[in-house]
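Folding problem:
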Amino acid sequence: MSTLRNKVQLIGNVGQDPTITDLDKGKRVARFTMATNEHYKNSEGERVTNTEWHTIIAWGKLADIIEGFVTKGKEVAIEGKLTSRSYEDKEGNKKYVTEVVASEILLLGGNND
């Protein structure tokens, strides 16, 4: 059970084409958003869809794979861990961000093109 301490698995659709950034010493990072949908029936029996948006970060070779194969609308499965960080915006307000740092990606097909 120790491997389950901080583990996230998501299946959803990519919200926009990934942004790839080349950093110092050859490091690369990919960043994109991903939508997951939950369906349920409300009290009137109508089907309702609730969409959650997640920011996905991937490093190194995984960023290379994402650059080559992941595009807006693509259905993917992501496994990774949650990370939180904070920063100050231009006005000096403290902002908090939670992201999924991907360790694996599975391309599931289903382009919305």
The first helix runs from residue 60 to 69. The domain at 2-109 is CATH 2.40.50.140 (OB fold (Dihydrolipoamide Acetyltransferase, E2P)). Strands lie at 8-14, 19-22, 28-41, 47-59, 75-88, 94-109.
